[in-house]
Design brief:
Length: about 325
C-alpha cells in the first residue's frame, strides 16, 4: 500500500512530536491548511515542499515518496606497494567497542597500574602478572553484568575478585580454598549451557583474511509482507522501514554502521520480533515512542544502550533479540 503525501506529512510531524499548529507556525500557514494536506484534501504549494523537507530532516524526494538512488561508493586508489602487500595477504583485526568498551579498558589500565604502584610502594610480594589476569577477569565480568546478567559474567567476576584478593594477600579461604576454583568453573559452565539453550545467535567473533582481492562494501534492504531483512558489511548506510504493518525483521552489521528507522511504519504489531546482530560496527535502531522495546541483547566485548523513553500509553511491544561482538547496538526512542 503506497503512502500518500498527506500520510507522509502526518508521519513526519508525529515523529518530531509537532502539533498541526506548531508545524503551521513554522511554515507561515494556518493549521487548517496543514489539516487539509494531511487528509489529502489539498496539496502544499510546490515552493513549500523544500521548507517542509527541511523541517522534517529529510530530502524532498523522500517527502514526495520517490525512492532514493542506490548508494555509491568512492573507489580506492591503490599504489604499487599497497597492491603488492594485498597479494601477499595478511590478517586484519579491528575493535570498536563503543563508549562502554573504552570505559572498561580505561578502568582495567587504572586498576592494574594503581595496584602495581601500591605493590611497589608497600613492598607487597606480588608479580605484575598476578595482578593483571585477575583484574582482566574482574573488569570484563563487571562490564558484562552492567548490560545484562548472566552466570558466565558472574563467574568471571568471582574468579577475578577472589584471585585478585588472594594474590594481594588481603584474604584467603584456607578451609574452602580448594573448592573455590571448581565452583566458579561450574558457574561458568552453567552460564555457557544456558546461552547454548537460548535462541541461536549469529557468530560472536568475526575474523577476515586480507587476501588478493579488496573487501567489497555491501549494503542491502528488502521488505516482504510484514517483515524486512537488512544487511551492511564494510559500509555505512541508513534505511527507513515503510511497511504498512511490521511484525518481524532482521538486521546484520559486519565492519560497518547502520541506522534503521522504524518510525515510518504505519503500524507496528504488538509482540513484533526483531533479530539484530552487530560484529565490529555500530547499529542504531530508531523506534517510535508509541512502542515499548523489550531488549534481550548479549554482548561480547561490546555494549548496548537505550536512550529516551516510550510514551506512558504505549500500546505495542517490540522484542529485540540481539548479539554484539566488538561493537554497539543503540536503541533510540524518537
Amino acid at each position: 500500500m503506497e503512502q500518500t503525501l498527506g500520510k507522509r506529512i502526518v508521519a513526519n510531524r508525529k515523529r518530531l512530536n509537532l502539533t498541526q499548529d506548531q508545524l503551521a507556525e513554522q511554515l507561515g500557514v494556518t493549521a487548517q491548511a496543514v489539516s487539509k494536506w494531511e487528509n489529502d484534501q489539498s496539496c502544499p504549494d510546490i515552493s513549500m515542499l523544500p521548507r517542509l523537507a527541511e523541517i522534517f530532516g529529510i530530502s524532498t524526494d523522500e517527502l514526495l515518496g520517490r525512492e532514493a538512488p542506490p548508494p555509491t561508493y568512492q573507489g580506492e586508489v591503490v599504489t604499487d606497494d599497497e597492491d603488492e602487500s594485498e597479494e601477499k595477504g595478511g590478517w586484519e583485526f579491528h575493535w570498536d567497542a563503543g563508549r562502554k568498551g573504552a570505559l572498561s579498558f580505561a578502568l582495567l589500565v587504572l586498576l592494574v597500574g594503581g595496584l602495581t604502584l601500591a605493590a611497589r610502594i608497600l613492598s607487597w610480594d606480588v608479580s605484575f602478572w598476578s595482578i593483571l589476569w585477575p583484574s582482566a577477569f574482574l573488569v570484563y565480568g563487571l562490564s558484562s553484568l552492567f548490560g545484562r546478567f548472566s552466570l558466565f559474567s558472574f563467574g568471571a567476576t568471582m574468579i577475578g575478585a577472589y584471585y585478585l584478593v588472594e594474590n594481594l594477600g588481603i584474604y584467603s579461604l584456607d578451609i574452602a580454598g580448594d573448592l573455590v576454583f571448581p565452583l566458579i568453573v561450574v558457574l561458568l559452565g552453567l552460564g555457557l549451557l544456558i546461552d547454548a539453550l537460548r535462541k541461536p545467535k549469529k557468530p560472536k567473533f568475526t575474523f577476515r583474511h586480507k587476501g588478493g582481492e579488496h573487501k567489497k562494501a555491501h549494503s542491502s534492504m528488502t521488505e516482504n509482507g510484514e517483515s524486512f531483512d537488512c544487511s551492511v558489511s564494510f559500509a555505512e548506510n541508513t534505511y527507513t522501514v515503510t511497511l504498512p504493518r511490521l511484525s518481524s525483521g532482521e538486521a546484520t552489521v559486519s565492519f560497518g554502521e547502520l541506522t534503521l528507522d522504524l518510525t515510518q511504519c504505519e503500524e507496528i504489531a504488538d509482540g513484533c520480533d526483531l533479530d539484530l546482530s552487530c560484529s565490529f560496527g555500530e547499529l542504531r535502531l530508531l523506534v517510535p515512542k508509541s512502542c515499548r522495546v523489550v531488549p534481550d541483547i548479549s554482548t561480547s566485548f561490546g555494549s548496548s544502550e537505550i536512550t529516551g523513553h516510550p510514551d506512558s500509553d504505549a500500546t505495542a511491544t517490540i522484542h529485540v533479540d540481539g548479539s554484539v561482538s566488538f561493537g554497539e547496538i543503540e536503541i533510540h526512542y524518537v
